[in-house]
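Progress against Task 2.4 (sequence-to-structure conversion) is shown through the following example record, which the project officer requested during the mid-term review.
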Amino acid sequence: MNVSARLSALVAGAALVAAACASNPALKRLDPKSRDFISQVRYTITKEERQAFLALAPEAREDFIEDFWERRDPTPGTPENEYRTEYYNRITRSNRLFSGGGSPGWLQDRGRVYITLGPPDNRITYPRGITFYGLPTEIWWYGLYSIVFIDEYWNDNYRIAPESAGQIAVITQAQTEWNRPQEDMPPPGEKPYASVLAGLEIAIEVEDAEKARFSLLIPYENIWLKSAGDSYQATLEVTMTVAGEDGAEVWEFSRSYPLDIPAGRLKEVLDQDFEAEAVAPLKPGSYALSVVVTNTNDGSKAALERAFKI
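Structure tokens generated for the chain above:
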């Protein structure tokens, strides 16, 4: 899916949904399960689908919900509906990532963008307000498109900045693409492999012809850090494996790295790299190194492979 198709409507669409939810008397007649459904799918349900659902008799709503997700299933006939799984996973991750601001994360502007577009290709944060606005600011990049969020009241509830309104037309087009039944959306974890943890580098140093030292570097600015009071946190799970010429695995390394960065040092740290090292005892020969890094904050991943000899 290209950049234009990945950007989707957030501000105008959300405002219309909110207004409709407040004024439509049919919503008040829904049972709790149906009311939860119509609320949770606000970013993916079409206007026609919503009207049809509200007009249904209570006994027909369960079939509608089942058909609703089936129409969006990118792999019909398989046990899992990847679209539905990823949609609800994004709601869960939004609530975890954007826990401040006085409202559930998935209902905030950053949550709406995250659910509809997925994790950004790059995210730059200015939590101390050292920006043009003089307010805490975040800039999310999707390809060549940027979305700016501002925390106007310093309460961790970032809203889309006025100049980002120029992206709304492109964003609207993308939501149309994303909502289209049986249209593929990125499977869980697929997009972040190429983007969210971009900048992954590995250095391989052979020591004493009997072992190899692997030095992993990731720019902190590419790591999704969750606001947690006076600090920003994440946990990176790093897995390295080495395979011989026959493809058989001969060495494995796995470790979790909790990150806890004081808010006062965030700007300084974002100019630095996360580093991790591992040493593998290996006999002379040709090998292939595979590295996978997972950020447990949002499930984003990065991966690379390198061939080397001892």
